[in-house]
Amino acid sequence: MNFWWMVFLAGVGTYLMRSVGVWLPPQWVPSRWLAFLPLAVILVMAVSSLASFVGADQETWGMAIATLAVIIASLKQLPLFACIAIGCGVFGAIASLV
Amino acid sequence: MGFLPTAISFGAIAVQAGVSNAGAIAMSVWVFAGASQFAAIEAIRQQLPWLSIVLTMLIINLRHVPMSLAASRVVYNRFPGGQRWLLAHGLVDETFALELSDKPHPFAYYLGMHLCCWASWVVGTWIGCQVGMQIPERWLQFALPSLFLYLLINAIQTIQGRAIWAVLAAGIALTFATAGLGSTGILLSILGVAVLATVLLKQQDKSIEG
Q: What is the ipTM metric for this complex?
């Protein structure tokens, strides 16, 4: 499977999910299970992406402090872009200190 | 306009991960789902199998199912089938939140909102592709973890009760424990966390009801 097939299949699948309210009776969907699946995906992706920074001291410290900064920014209800900019800025600054 | 900066980040990260400009833009045009697109780029960077990438994207986008069911029942139920199919492509977190918290509007209003958001996402991706290689990689490396942390904090805030902390701790432990299994480990962790969350938070509901 190449990149274009991946995009095509992901797009078709996503569209089918977005249009499920049009073509599927709501009582057929196990909503409780689905309600927690995105949380599971986000949690696992967050942990695994952070784990990839554990290694060199500078990167590990950068990851830890940037994580804290993003968490605080998110709790302060800053918009998504601001949180990403803060995370990138803090990590980039600390990792560049080498 | 809120879409533009995130889309620029996506385009920049995509080209830095080796995805072509056309590939990144096609993904934004056709998939139009930020979190799953970022996850796909991370998976491409980690050289995971294509099937795993597709499954990861689809699992992340599963949240669109309850969103679609809710939007169809509350907002789109006044429109004929063709218009509902058209609106489906633009059903993203932001449009969903706006539409369900606002008074009813005509079809053209919803279509215009969806088109503006979609166009911002595509144009932002294109801009990101153009400037992506000029930004040092180190300064973009934390974009994906930041996105997932932001989504995680938002998700946690919507769930009440202490059981969520048990789910978080178990999720972190499970992810580290299965890290050696690659994409299979990620999938197992996701399923494990989802099962645990369903069971634990259900138990909490029962205790509240009881």
A: 0.82
